[in-house]
Every structure is written in C-alpha cells, then in structure tokens.
C-alpha cells in the first residue's frame, strides 16, 4: 500500500526527460518507490535513475502486467510500437500517455482500448511543482480519474481540459520552462555584462523568478498590475519595459507559442 492511500503498482514505459521527471517527483515527494516498475529504453538513463531512487526495472512491457496504471513517456517515434506491445496486458488498467502531440482518439485507436488518457506534464514535476494538463477518454469513471489524480498529485497541479485545449495548455505550461530558462539565462548574461559574477547573476535571476511567481500566485493582482507596481514613474524599470517592447518581447513570446503550436 502506498504511503498516502490505497494504491497498487504503477508502471512506466520510458524514463527519459519527462518520464524520469515524473518518477523523480513521485518518489521525492513521498510516493513509495517499491510500487513503481519501469521499463526503460536502451540507454543507461533508467538504471542511473533507479540507483538514485530505488524503483524496480523490467526489460519487457509484458512484465508490467501486475500494474494498475501505466504511464508512457516515450517519444512520438516509439509511441505506436509501444502501444501495440501494450495491447496484450492492458485489460483492466488505466493508461496515461505523456506525448507533446497526438490525441486520445489516436491512442485509443492504436491501443485498441478505451481507458486511455493524454497528459502533458512539465519538467517542474521533478520538484513537485509541476503543472500537468490531462484529457481523459470518455470511458474514465470519476474513480478512475481520482486514481490518476492521486498519483500525479504528488508532482504538482493536475488540470483536466477538453482535448481541443490540451495542446495549447501543454505549450503554455509544458514548453515554457525552456522559454523561462532562456529568459533567466539572458538576464544573467546581462548581469555578467555589467560586472556581476555568473553565480551571483544566476542566483539573482532565479531568486527573482521564484519570488515573482510566488507573488503572482498569491496576490489578488494580475501580472499586469504587478508590473505596474514595479514601474515607478520616471524610474528605471519602465525604461527597461519600453526597451523590451521596442525589441518585440511580447510578440516574440506569442510567436514562440505559435511556433510550438505548429503555426
Ligand atoms: N520533455 C518534456 O518537458 C516533455 C515531453 N513531453 C512528451 O513526452 C515524450 C517524451 O519526451 P522526452 O521525455 O522529452 O524524450 P526523451 O527522449 O528524453 O525520453 C524518451 C525515453 O523513452 C525511451 N524509450 C524509447 N523507446 C522505448 C521503449 N520501447 N520502451 C521503453 N522506453 C523507451 C528512451 O530511451 C528515452 O529515455 C514526447 O512525446 C514529448 O513530446 C511532454 C511533456 C513535457
Ligand atoms: O518539446 C516537446 O515536444 C515537449 C512537449 C512539451 C514540452 N516538451
């Protein structure tokens, strides 16, 4: 039995960037590693992660037969072959695929099974601060959804959306950690340009991102009003905001989302 409830074994197929991040988030936040079985890929990544976290590794998908819920974290190129192999043991299980593209309809069709969901987590799941969008097939009962939520809840927020919104939600929450990392890197580059050490520049930029995000989450004000609070009349911040806009900052962000959406 898991530390937080009456759960049984869960399985993972693929423990790369996102599969590994979810497994890490689960174990580091109290999910019992003895209830996790992982079928990894060819590299040593899964074994390295197992050495840190202690879950069980198997070499074949059919060895996940005793699990209740299976999470798939392989890339798009391996997805269909994994789904086809999973067919033999899938009856009675809940399947959740982490794929950047695709639909529940496609997953159902290739797997030949109805209880399949499509989820797009983001890498902060690794520290229990993730944001995961999920679309369930219509065959998921409220109890089934509760079961998935009770697992992924260890990794942060889980939000159910209709399939037509999952792609854009996955971009806004799932691709954007890379966009924010780029911003943090650029900000610290600027700090270094003006004489800060790299270490202090990163500390300042990361500390700011954590603090500003926490404030945005807890405040009654929206981010636009929070920006207004920083921009003192005639002060330095509004000059920086003007320079960002002059260089197309807002448009660059919107275009980045358009590009990730394939537009
Ligand atoms: N990286 C991210 O932040 C996010 C990724 N995704 C989606 O998750 C999927 C995987 O992406 P990443 O984790 O970034 O890729 P990745 O390449 O880091 O991980 C994929 C893993 O699957 C393993 N694998 C391949 N074939 C396998 C098989 N037959 N059995 C077991 N394992 C197998 C590979 O060895 C690799 O470790 C993609 O569809 C991506 O769009 C979704 C949300 C966020
Ligand atoms: O780049 C990708 O395909 C995935 C989807 C969300 C984040 N990474």
UniProtKB/TrEMBL annotation:
Example of a GO biological process term: L-proline biosynthetic process
Gene Ontology, cellular component aspect: cytoplasm
Enzyme class: oxidoreductase
Residue ranges of every copy of the Pyrroline-5-carboxylate reductase dimerisation domain listed in the record: 165-260
Pyrroline-5-carboxylate reductase catalytic N-terminal domain sequence ranges: 10-97
Annotated EC: 1.5.1.2
Any GO molecular function: pyrroline-5-carboxylate reductase activity
Keywords tagged on the record: Amino-acid biosynthesis, Cytoplasm, Membrane, NADP, Oxidoreductase, Proline biosynthesis, Transmembrane, Transmembrane helix
Catalytic activity of the protein: L-proline + NADP(+) = (S)-1-pyrroline-5-carboxylate + NADPH + 2 H(+); L-proline + NAD(+) = (S)-1-pyrroline-5-carboxylate + NADH + 2 H(+)
Pathway(s) of this molecule: Amino-acid biosynthesis; L-proline biosynthesis; L-proline from L-glutamate 5-semialdehyde: step 1/1
Subcellular location: Cytoplasm
InterPro entries: 6-PGluconate_DH-like_C_sf (IPR008927), NAD(P)-bd_dom_sf (IPR036291), P5C_Rdtase_cat_N (IPR028939), P5CR-like_CS (IPR053790), P5CR_dimer (IPR029036), Pyrroline-COOH_reductase (IPR000304)
Transmembrane annotation, as ranges: 7-27
Role: Catalyzes the reduction of 1-pyrroline-5-carboxylate (PCA) to L-proline.
Protein family membership: Belongs to the pyrroline-5-carboxylate reductase family.
Protein name: Pyrroline-5-carboxylate reductase
Protein's organism: Companilactobacillus tucceti DSM 20183
Encoding gene, per UniProt annotation: proC
């Amino acid at each position: 039995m898991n530390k937080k409830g009456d759960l049984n074994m869960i399985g993972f197929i693929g423990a790369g960037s996102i599969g590994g991040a979810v497994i890490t988030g689960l174990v580091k936040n109290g999910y019992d590693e003895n209830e996790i079985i992982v079928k990894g890929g060819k590299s040593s990544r899964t074994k390295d992660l197992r050495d840190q976290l202690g879950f069980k590794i198997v070499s074949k998908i059919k060895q996940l037969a005793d699990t209740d819920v299976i999470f798939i974290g392989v890339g798009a190129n391996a997805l269909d072959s994994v789904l086809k192999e999973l067919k033999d043991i899938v009856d009675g299980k809940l399947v959740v695929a982490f794929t950047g593209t695709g639909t529940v309809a496609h997953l159902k069709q290739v797997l030949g099974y109805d209880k399949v969901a499509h989820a797009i987590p983001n890498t902060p799941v690794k520290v229990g601060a993730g944001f995961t969008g999920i679309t369930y097939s219509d065959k998921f009962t409220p109890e089934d959804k509760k079961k998935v939520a009770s697992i992924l809840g260890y990794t942060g927020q889980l939000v159910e959306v209709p399939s037509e919104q999952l792609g854009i939600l996955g971009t806004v929450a799932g691709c954007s950690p890379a966009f924010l990392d780029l911003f943090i890197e650029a900000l610290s580059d600027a700090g270094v340009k003006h004489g800060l050490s790299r270490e202090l520049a990163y500390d300042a930029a990361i500390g700011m991102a954590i603090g500003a995000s926490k404030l945005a989450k807890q405040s009654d004000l929206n981010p636009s009003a929070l920006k207004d609070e920083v921009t003192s009349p005639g002060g330095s911040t509004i000059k920086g905001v003007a320079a960002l806009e002059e260089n197309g900052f807002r448009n660059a962000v919107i275009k980045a989302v358009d590009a990730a959406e394939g537009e």
